Amino acid sequence: MIIGIGNITFGGTGKTIFVMEIVKRIKERVCVISRGYGGKREGKMSLVSDGTHIFYTPVEIGDEPYMLAKQLEGSIVITAIRREEAISYARREFGVNIFILDDSFQYRRLKKDINILMFNSDRPFFPPRDIPSRYETADLGIVVRREWVSPLIERIKIPIYYATIQPETELEDKKVVAFCGIARPDSFKYTLKEAGCKVLRLLAFNDHHNYSLKDIRQTKEIKEEVGADKIVTTEKDFVKLPEKEGITPIRIRMIIEDGFWEDLSSLHPEIPIARK
Length: 276
What we know:
- This protein is an alpha/beta fold and about 280 residues long.
- It folds into 2 domains: about 1-165 and about 255-265, Rossmann fold (3-Layer(aba) Sandwich), CATH 3.40.50.300; about 170-250.
- Helices cover about 25% and strands about 25% of the residues.
- The protein has helices at about 15-25, 60, 65-70, 85-95, 185-195, 215-225, 235-240, 260-265, and strands spanning about 1-5, 30-35, 45-50, 75-80, 100, 115-120, 140-145, 160-165, 175-180, 200-205, 230-235, 245-250, 250-255.
- The strands form 2 sheets. The chain has a 9-stranded mixed sheet with strand order 3-4-2-5-1-6-7-8-13, with helices on both faces. The chain has a 4-stranded parallel sheet with strand order 10-9-11-12, with helices on both faces.
- The longest helix is centred in the last third of the chain and has 14 residues, at about 215-225.
């Protein structure tokens, strides 16, 4: 069983958070395959985790695969450009039969049993990384709520379900300096708003930025200058920090509206998935 997760736009749509959510619901051992974008080993097939041990650093294999390996204990995590090679390896070495392919919609040489597309509610088709009409080849869509919902959402013809990204870290009424190196810094700002904190400064680095001690030192200086209570960042950024003391990662999870898991199960009833 191969489940592909992807999008048709550049920029973050919550794919990795959704991957974590679906893996946690599947009641069998799963292998997650990621491209490993931004890691020094990008282009090489790498066993990131055998479910017990993590064999590489975030700098070596990329922030997203490392975060997946940290949070999905018991699951196999592999980075590879040629996904079929990773699937063959995982079947042979670990005997797994369920594969989740992170960011795989444009990888058309491999047939998936289920294709799930992620959309942002405010910009569902922009900026495009694919022909917009190709979304119709997907089986299900998840629309991640941002600050507003574009009328273009009504044009999506595949079954769609709305999702929210909810912060789990307690920040109510805290004054924070925030920083991130993600495709859509505004989405992190929206998450912080949902957490109930007051953002005194948001520092946006390039996507997949590799942080230096200088970056951390300057951020801490800004915290003192503006009188913030905390420095916060995303979990994806946190795993790459050379110094973590005094910095709080914002834990988040994706909540998808009722009916999605039932719909997913009905496509392939053999998927051992928990619906609640």
